[in-house]
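User: Here's a structure from my thesis project, written as structure tokens. My advisor, Dr. K., wants to see whether a designed sequence matches the one we expressed. Can you design one independently, without my sequence as a hint?
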């Protein structure tokens, strides 16, 4: 890949300034499909209210195909006006990788990396390997999602092992 870790950090220091909002998927009145115009309106409102970025909330009960379409709509509408992040909280590493690749192709700027709901690593090394795989899959910026529901307190009381971050 063409972007170094130092270049990513420099980009983040320069670009990640302000408040990021969250864009939730909107549905048609009968809830049968995504409401593309409603989603686009939400993105335009984020721009109008001065947010520097928006996070696509894909972990809201969408199918994987709906999540891909949702990310595509948000990226298309935000193009050049707002940075776009997507949370990787799908059911498997393979799905998270697939969404990372799609996000890069669609025009996202950032990946917020989490773990599948059933993820229960046996070691800090396993945590590192998943993070490393996802962070290096694309040239997108990375935000870590260190939620206490991963039970990483087993490794460090901060709920996210500093040794993993230092690597």
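Assistant: Designed independently from the structure alone:
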């Amino acid at each position: 890949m063409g972007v170094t870790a130092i270049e990513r950090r420099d980009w983040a220091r320069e670009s990640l300034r302000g408040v990021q909002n969250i864009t939730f998927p909107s549905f048609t009145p009968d809830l049968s499909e995504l409401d593309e115009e409603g989603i686009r309106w939400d993105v335009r409102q984020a721009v109008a209210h001065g947010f520097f970025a928006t996070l696509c909330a894909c972990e809201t009960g969408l199918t994987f195909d709906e999540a891909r379409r949702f990310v595509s709509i948000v990226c298309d509408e935000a193009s050049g006006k707002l940075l776009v992040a997507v949370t990787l909280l799908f059911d498997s590493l393979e799905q998270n990788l697939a969404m990372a690749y799609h996000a890069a192709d669609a025009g996202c700027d950032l990946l917020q990396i989490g773990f599948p709901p059933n993820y229960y690593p046996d070691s800090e090394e396993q945590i590192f390997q998943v993070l490393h795989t996802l962070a290096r899959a694309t040239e997108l910026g990375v935000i870590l999602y260190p939620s206490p529901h991963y039970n990483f307190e087993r490794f460090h009381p901060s709920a996210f092992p500093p040794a993993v971050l230092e690597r």
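When you compare it with your expressed construct, this may help: The first strand starts at residue 20 and ends at 23.
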